[in-house]
Amino acid sequence: MTPTALGTVRHDWTLPEVESLLGLPLMDLLFHAQRVHRERHQPNTVQMSTLLSIKTGACPEDCAYCPQSVRYDTGLEREELMEVAAVRERALQAREAGATRFCMGAAYRSPKAKDLRVITQMVREVSALGLETCATLGMLTPEQAHELKDAGLDYYNHNLDTSPQFYGQVITTRTYRDRLDTLEAVRAADLKVCCGGILGMGESASDRAGLLMTLANLPQHPESVPINQLVQVPGTPLEGTAPVDPLDFVRTIAAARLMMPAAHVRLSAGREAMSDELQALCFLAGANSIFYGERLLTTGNPDVERDRRLLERLGIRPESVAEAIPPPAPRHEETAA
Question: Is 282 noted as a catalytic residue in this protein?
Fold first, then answer.
């Protein structure tokens, strides 16, 4: 691939191509990522999301990174599904703090019908506040996806986590195909997709390339691509895993920007442990979305004031909902079949 072709919308990536992209000299990779970012997005802006755990713990899955699994002793207290009024109040607080998207997460393998009826009411209440709505509730049937769409849900988050080859070393209770089926159900319901993965779980560079290849080769690119750095929680099987090299994390952000140019690439879990300088490199690499607030489901996140200070130092401002609509693609780019 020639440098001028980087950032072209494609759905036919090969693993050697992605590995080659990740292996570019870092300054070249950052240069092209920032170029494509500015072609597709408002420069010096970041989309602000807030994530709330609306039902915590007691999940039957065995995801090796997750403190919410009933299989691991992490000291996490189980919490039942929140009341609708309490979720609305938290969404109002998030809006007042500057968030434009409110994400509701629940520790389910898949939601039960009675719980989904409550969650759809939450979606209606949050949407009425003028916020974009997002939910992550585990696996969905096509009917459940349509029910959420009818309630006004904008985005559904369902991460692939890692490459198909490494996936079985992290999760055994849900297959990769299960995840892809949920993404297909979400698309069929005309919901926007939020889908990414986690770095630092012991995966290889080739696994990171495989994750990006799978995401970019979906029939339609996710509108949001969260890139998480593993938060090691005592009691989970991945506690003690060697951390990902910070520059490899930056490379993955840059490659995601180039391979899915219109997507919002979200700097997600793990920011609490990142220096301001590392976060700045991630923004340079094309990250233009963050979770905003003190918690991500059950793990820490930089507090609001730290984020405000960092963004002010970098000259980055919050993105409005209107600005979240990507501009038309440059004329020299063609969408591959």
Answer: no
